[in-house]
Structure formats: structure tokens, C-alpha cells
Request: fold
Amino acid sequence: EPEVTQTPSHQVTQMGQEVILRCVPISNHLYFYWYRQILGQKVEFLVSFYNNEISEKSEIFDDQFSVERPDGSNFTLKIRSTKLEDSAMYFCASSVGLANRDTQYFGPGTRLTVL
Amino acid sequence: AQRVTQPEKLLSVFKGAPVELKCNYSYSGSPELFWYVQYSRQRLQLLLRHISRESIKGFTADLNKGETSFHLKKPFAQEEDSAMYYCASFSGGYNKLIFGAGTRLAVHP
Reply:
């Protein structure tokens, strides 16, 4: 059964550095998402992406964040200048996208630690 | 703002006991609700979606619009059911999911 994959599984970075988190969505899916979960807190929506553009973003997704689909398979989340409070588990998800509100399938997550 | 509430952080039961994980939502329209499960160190996996009305791994959940609830139930818990369970809802007309805080289910032998 196809799955969403994410790399790396754990990323450690210094405050102020740029990080890129990578995701490979399920191949026939058209909608892509990023969520994050700070330790001990809820899973929070960051952004959704469809047809090569952002379809919705949350208040968390400020100018420090960007997403891109650089080729036909990868979907990336870039944080330009990381802050301590960006430390979290970042989940990528994808859905078929043929109808609104399709089931979202999640990747295993990338744990980002900002020192 | 739309909210999903899971009032219990931890639910501890013995094997074979019934389980009910509570979820309440606030949404004025037609809600679409999910239960996701996360086993230790694994990804969030879809367990149930209310529109499908399926029973997965013996779990069921019924949408109660009067009580704005979508509680997850299983008549006889198994040790392998031990995991984090998240209730989630679509937000309005968009595709973003709103998650509850999660309930850790611990099933003891």
C-alpha cells in the first residue's frame, strides 16, 4: 500500500539556520499539507497546497515558512531562519483531491530540534 | 472558532474491558469527523471516518449531532489497541483538519 514518506526523520539545527523538510506524497494525490505538533500540544495545520499554489495557510505559517513542489514527486517545507519555538514534529499529508474533503494520509513525521 | 475537544488525556483499562474515547466538536454546519490512531513511534493512521460508517479493528463511532459528539467505542479492548487516539474535524469548507489534544489509551493485561 503506498505511503507518504518524509526525510529526514530527525533534523537538528542551530537557531537562525535554514532548514528544508522533504516529503514524497502518495503518487496520484493532488492535495498536499503540512502540520506540526509541538511536544505535548495538539497537531496544528500549517498549510495546504494544490495545483502548485497555496490553497490555505494558518496564522503560524508566516513569512519564515514556504512550501514548494520542486519536481513531480517532492513537496518541501522551508523554514528560513529557525527559532527555538519551531522545534516540533512536522507531518506531511496528502489526499487524492478529486473531491473536497478527501481523507488525508500522513507521513511518519520529521522531528525538528532547534538549538 | 471551530474546536475539537478530547477531555481525557489518558484512559487506562484492562484487556477485555469496554472502551469509550470521548470527542466533542463545535461546528454549526455539517461536520465531517475522523479518528486517527498513532501507535508508538509510527505515523498518524486513519482509523474511522464518520461518513463511511465502517468498523475498523472492532472500533465504531457514531455522530451524535444533538450532543455534538463522536465518541470512539470498542466492546473488548486488546493490548495492541494501546496508542494515542486523535479526533479530528474538517474546518468549515476547507480541507484543513482541526485536531483534538489526543487521548492515550493504555490497555493492561
